[in-house]
Design goal:
The chain is mainly alpha-helical and 191 residues long. The protein contains five helices and two strands. The chain starts with a helix and ends with a strand.
Protein backbone atom coordinates (compact mmCIF):
# COMPACT_ATOMS: atom_id res chain seq x y z
CA UNK A 1 0.00 0.00 0.00
CA UNK A 2 1.49 3.32 -1.00
CA UNK A 3 1.58 6.51 1.08
CA UNK A 4 -1.43 8.10 -0.70
CA UNK A 5 -3.60 5.07 0.05
CA UNK A 6 -2.49 4.95 3.68
CA UNK A 7 -3.20 8.68 4.07
CA UNK A 8 -6.65 8.19 2.54
CA UNK A 9 -7.30 5.33 4.96
CA UNK A 10 -6.39 7.54 7.95
CA UNK A 11 -8.55 10.35 6.54
CA UNK A 12 -11.48 7.90 6.30
CA UNK A 13 -10.91 6.67 9.87
CA UNK A 14 -10.96 10.26 11.13
CA UNK A 15 -14.17 10.97 9.15
CA UNK A 16 -15.85 7.91 10.70
CA UNK A 17 -14.80 9.00 14.21
CA UNK A 18 -16.12 12.50 13.54
CA UNK A 19 -19.52 11.07 12.52
CA UNK A 20 -19.56 8.96 15.68
CA UNK A 21 -18.89 12.07 17.81
CA UNK A 22 -21.65 13.99 16.07
CA UNK A 23 -24.11 11.11 16.58
CA UNK A 24 -23.11 10.57 20.21
CA UNK A 25 -25.04 13.57 21.51
CA UNK A 26 -28.32 12.01 20.41
CA UNK A 27 -27.37 8.56 21.78
CA UNK A 28 -26.58 10.06 25.19
CA UNK A 29 -29.84 12.03 25.31
CA UNK A 30 -31.85 8.95 24.34
CA UNK A 31 -30.11 6.80 26.94
CA UNK A 32 -30.58 9.36 29.72
CA UNK A 33 -34.25 9.78 28.81
CA UNK A 34 -34.98 6.03 28.88
CA UNK A 35 -32.24 3.81 30.31
CA UNK A 36 -34.37 0.69 30.17
CA UNK A 37 -34.89 0.71 26.40
CA UNK A 38 -31.74 2.36 25.07
CA UNK A 39 -28.20 0.94 25.20
CA UNK A 40 -25.47 2.75 27.10
CA UNK A 41 -23.80 5.12 24.61
CA UNK A 42 -20.25 4.09 25.59
CA UNK A 43 -19.06 7.63 24.95
CA UNK A 44 -16.06 7.29 27.27
CA UNK A 45 -14.66 4.55 25.04
CA UNK A 46 -15.07 6.74 21.96
CA UNK A 47 -13.37 9.69 23.70
CA UNK A 48 -10.49 7.47 24.79
CA UNK A 49 -10.11 6.00 21.30
CA UNK A 50 -9.89 9.48 19.77
CA UNK A 51 -7.48 10.76 22.40
CA UNK A 52 -5.18 7.78 21.78
CA UNK A 53 -5.40 8.05 17.98
CA UNK A 54 -1.97 8.55 16.41
CA UNK A 55 -0.93 9.05 12.82
CA UNK A 56 2.05 7.04 11.64
CA UNK A 57 4.94 9.54 11.28
CA UNK A 58 5.88 7.91 7.97
CA UNK A 59 2.61 9.09 6.35
CA UNK A 60 1.82 12.12 8.48
CA UNK A 61 1.27 15.45 6.78
CA UNK A 62 -0.13 18.85 7.76
CA UNK A 63 -3.61 18.03 6.45
CA UNK A 64 -4.00 14.80 8.47
CA UNK A 65 -2.56 16.43 11.60
CA UNK A 66 -5.07 19.28 11.24
CA UNK A 67 -7.95 16.81 10.83
CA UNK A 68 -6.85 14.95 13.96
CA UNK A 69 -6.38 18.18 15.96
CA UNK A 70 -9.84 19.40 14.95
CA UNK A 71 -11.40 16.07 15.91
CA UNK A 72 -9.65 15.98 19.29
CA UNK A 73 -10.71 19.56 20.07
CA UNK A 74 -14.28 18.76 19.06
CA UNK A 75 -14.27 15.75 21.38
CA UNK A 76 -12.82 17.87 24.18
CA UNK A 77 -15.69 20.35 23.96
CA UNK A 78 -18.34 17.67 23.47
CA UNK A 79 -17.03 15.77 26.50
CA UNK A 80 -17.76 18.74 28.73
CA UNK A 81 -21.27 19.04 27.30
CA UNK A 82 -21.89 15.31 27.75
CA UNK A 83 -20.69 15.43 31.37
CA UNK A 84 -23.11 18.28 32.01
CA UNK A 85 -25.96 16.32 30.41
CA UNK A 86 -25.09 13.36 32.62
CA UNK A 87 -24.89 15.50 35.79
CA UNK A 88 -28.24 17.11 35.01
CA UNK A 89 -29.89 13.73 34.40
CA UNK A 90 -28.43 12.29 37.63
CA UNK A 91 -29.61 15.32 39.61
CA UNK A 92 -33.08 14.88 38.12
CA UNK A 93 -33.11 11.17 39.04
CA UNK A 94 -31.96 11.90 42.59
CA UNK A 95 -34.66 14.53 42.96
CA UNK A 96 -37.31 12.12 41.68
CA UNK A 97 -36.09 9.43 44.11
CA UNK A 98 -36.12 11.91 46.97
CA UNK A 99 -39.72 12.85 46.21
CA UNK A 100 -40.65 9.20 45.89
CA UNK A 101 -39.11 8.37 49.28
CA UNK A 102 -40.66 11.43 50.89
CA UNK A 103 -44.05 10.39 49.51
CA UNK A 104 -43.63 6.86 50.85
CA UNK A 105 -42.64 8.04 54.31
CA UNK A 106 -45.77 10.18 54.45
CA UNK A 107 -48.05 7.28 53.41
CA UNK A 108 -50.14 5.35 55.87
CA UNK A 109 -49.95 1.60 55.97
CA UNK A 110 -46.97 -0.42 54.84
CA UNK A 111 -44.10 1.93 53.97
CA UNK A 112 -42.39 -0.89 52.05
CA UNK A 113 -45.00 -0.69 49.31
CA UNK A 114 -43.75 1.20 46.30
CA UNK A 115 -46.33 1.02 43.53
CA UNK A 116 -43.74 1.96 40.88
CA UNK A 117 -41.00 -0.52 41.65
CA UNK A 118 -41.53 -4.11 42.73
CA UNK A 119 -37.76 -4.56 43.02
CA UNK A 120 -37.55 -2.06 45.90
CA UNK A 121 -40.15 -4.08 47.83
CA UNK A 122 -38.08 -7.19 47.26
CA UNK A 123 -34.80 -5.51 48.12
CA UNK A 124 -36.02 -3.96 51.40
CA UNK A 125 -37.60 -7.28 52.38
CA UNK A 126 -34.36 -9.01 51.41
CA UNK A 127 -32.32 -6.58 53.52
CA UNK A 128 -34.64 -7.30 56.46
CA UNK A 129 -34.01 -11.04 56.00
CA UNK A 130 -30.24 -10.45 55.81
CA UNK A 131 -30.35 -8.49 59.07
CA UNK A 132 -32.32 -11.29 60.76
CA UNK A 133 -29.82 -13.89 59.49
CA UNK A 134 -26.86 -11.83 60.76
CA UNK A 135 -28.49 -11.49 64.17
CA UNK A 136 -29.21 -15.21 64.34
CA UNK A 137 -25.59 -15.89 63.37
CA UNK A 138 -24.52 -13.78 66.37
CA UNK A 139 -26.91 -15.68 68.63
CA UNK A 140 -29.19 -12.64 69.01
CA UNK A 141 -32.88 -13.47 69.11
CA UNK A 142 -34.36 -10.08 69.95
CA UNK A 143 -34.81 -7.77 66.97
CA UNK A 144 -33.30 -4.29 67.54
CA UNK A 145 -36.25 -2.79 65.63
CA UNK A 146 -39.58 -3.81 64.13
CA UNK A 147 -39.80 -4.31 60.39
CA UNK A 148 -41.70 -1.05 59.70
CA UNK A 149 -39.01 0.94 61.55
CA UNK A 150 -36.30 -0.94 59.65
CA UNK A 151 -37.96 -0.22 56.28
CA UNK A 152 -38.43 3.47 57.15
CA UNK A 153 -34.80 3.79 58.32
CA UNK A 154 -33.35 2.01 55.27
CA UNK A 155 -35.45 4.02 52.79
CA UNK A 156 -34.59 7.27 54.51
CA UNK A 157 -30.90 6.34 54.57
CA UNK A 158 -31.01 5.29 50.92
CA UNK A 159 -32.72 8.53 49.90
CA UNK A 160 -30.09 10.56 51.74
CA UNK A 161 -27.15 8.59 50.31
CA UNK A 162 -28.60 8.57 46.78
CA UNK A 163 -28.96 12.35 46.83
CA UNK A 164 -25.31 12.76 47.88
CA UNK A 165 -23.90 9.98 45.69
CA UNK A 166 -21.12 11.05 43.33
CA UNK A 167 -20.08 9.52 40.04
CA UNK A 168 -18.24 6.25 40.63
CA UNK A 169 -19.90 5.59 44.01
CA UNK A 170 -22.35 2.86 44.90
CA UNK A 171 -24.54 2.27 47.92
CA UNK A 172 -23.71 -0.87 49.90
CA UNK A 173 -25.28 -2.56 52.88
CA UNK A 174 -23.08 -3.61 55.76
CA UNK A 175 -23.83 -5.05 59.17
CA UNK A 176 -22.83 -2.82 62.07
CA UNK A 177 -21.65 -5.17 64.85
CA UNK A 178 -21.96 -2.50 67.56
CA UNK A 179 -25.50 -1.42 66.69
CA UNK A 180 -26.42 -4.98 65.68
CA UNK A 181 -28.26 -3.84 62.57
CA UNK A 182 -27.78 -3.38 58.84
CA UNK A 183 -26.72 0.05 57.62
CA UNK A 184 -26.24 1.57 54.20
CA UNK A 185 -23.11 3.44 53.17
CA UNK A 186 -21.45 4.84 50.06
CA UNK A 187 -18.21 3.52 48.66
CA UNK A 188 -16.22 4.01 45.49
CA UNK A 189 -17.12 1.35 42.97
CA UNK A 190 -14.78 -1.60 43.40
CA UNK A 191 -13.50 -0.08 46.68
Amino acid sequence: MDIRQRRKEVENQLAVLLKQVEGMDNKIRMYLADRQNNPHPRHEELVEKIQRFRIDPAISNKYLETLLDNLQWKVYYHTHAWKQLWRNAEAKRREARKKEFAGQNGQKGNPAKDPHDDRSIYSVDRLWEVQKQKLEGLGEHAEPEVKDDFVRRIKQSYGQLASEKQEGEEIYMTFDQDEKRCVLEKRKRGG
